[in-house]
Give the backbone structure.
Amino acid sequence: MNIIRSRLSTTDSVFKKRQLHYQNLMSELRERRSQYGQWGAKQKTRHESKGKLLPRDRIELLLDPGSPFLEVGDLAGDGLYEGLPPGAGLITGIGQVSGVTCMIIANDSPVKGGTYYGMTAKKHVRAQKIAWEHRLPNITLVDSGGANLPEQPDIFPDVGQYGSVFNQIVRQSAEGIPQISVVHGACTAGGTYVPVLCDVTVIVREQGYLHLGGPEITFAATGEKVDRETLGGAEMHGSTSGVIDYLAENDWHALSMVRDIVKDTCRREKYQRPVESPVLPRYDPAEIYGIVSDDPKIPTDMREVLARMVDDSRFDEFKSNYGPTLLCGFAHLNGFEVGILANNGVLFSDSSLKAVHFIDLCCKRNIPLLFMADNSGYMVGREAEHRGISKDGAKMVTAMASANVPKYNIIVGKSYGAGHLGMCSRPFEPRFSFGWPNGKSALLGPEQAAMTLSMVQKQKYERDNKIWTEEQDAAFRKPIFDEFEKFANMSNYAANLWIDSILDPVETSDTMGLLLDMAAREPKKETAFGVLRM
Ligand code: COA
């Protein structure tokens, strides 16, 4: 395998300028993340005063000591709901419980009673999907008022909303993927089906309660007066209704019961492909901050980035002199082999064809694919069209979409239009999709979008024999540019769950190591390619 030899000078003024720019991006990201901790002192104190653990403390107690917790969707809903911190009132992530990798889903009850907003439902469904694809046990820590009623259109009628949570519990259970839950607090109305559909359920005495209609609804519907504990308390469900399987004395006891259930009933699969000992890159990953371009017109040198990401800086580059705007090669991340496709400019016919060949090789060899997107799209213009860029780009999309190996997408720079799709972005259902803080993605770049719409406007004016002045043009373009710029930001993508999270470039290899560890335990699947247009 080839070692990438870096030509970077860390004393260079460009390096220093880019590094400073990136450090600012990282500070902004840290600031966004810190909002969660700073939020809701009153709500958190009120929660604890009931003798309950805070949701994050529950997760910490559940996890094995020292286990990483890879949080998914931590920035979901950020800025979308007035007065809510990032996270949409739900905490989801992957960690080890009794030595088994599990998906943990916990209602963040101090946030509006843990009720479900549109983004909460979307995040729950997404976490379940990750668990399903990797066959991870789901552990759901319930403490929620169920549907947030004014959010009805975004949580009730459609697929991918709250109802899909129930559907996915049942279907995963049917496939033998363990579904375990704890009722720590409120569990009401439709939300009762979350723990009740699970394989096994624990409830906390005098804290957890579960009913289809609370005391008020019961009175309104039947005229019967009944207190909450009699109606749906833990004691009653453990002894009278038989709805619940295990009765715990408090949060601590409930979580230790779950750890025992996982130990006794779940197991971790063995590796299905060779795994090497991890080796650090030969160059400092923190230098990536000074390598990533801070100018959209100048591409990032992805070889320099990879030299700081992959084990021992070894990158076995495939067709290194052909189709040079897309780097393809084999490498290891934290000991796990991966096929990397990284943009190094615009996608041309030759780079697209190289991608097809490389993806086919990875499928035959059962090697996961990592797509690192930094392109402004597929090449346009007469020459490119005559060479058949649309059919070569289509071949790349066909190969990428067909590939039946674990696929990952990271937006490490620009990711626009069809080029965004071609690099296995969210619509192609990669196992995970992430962005780096500098990442940008949209249908078109802000300048191109403003120019396209202004040309359409100008043509309309000309048809009506009206004059389209330069001043009008500038005033017309500015808001379009600003809107596209704002849309393209990774914070917007993370808030809307179009990516799973924003990754620090320095931590990207470790994160990928955790994900590839899960993938390495899956048996090989065959790939059937869609028709490749020749
Ligand atoms: N829809 C919309 N908002 C809701 C809500 C719901 N179903 N349930 C609670 N909220 C809001 C409250 O209005 C309050 O808002 P505020 O912070 O702006 O004052 C916030 O969530 C917290 O509720 P609060 O009752 O103060 O907290 P709590 O910890 O004492 O109790 C619940 C939380 C969820 C147990 C309690 O609010 C409750 O029982 N809600 C009704 C649940 C229900 O019947 N859902 C039916 C779904 S179909």
Remarks:
- The chain has three domains: 1-34+275-439+489-534, 44-265, 444-487.
- The pocket of coenzyme A is lined by residues 112-113, 115, 145-149, 186, 188-190, 214 (CB under 6 Å).
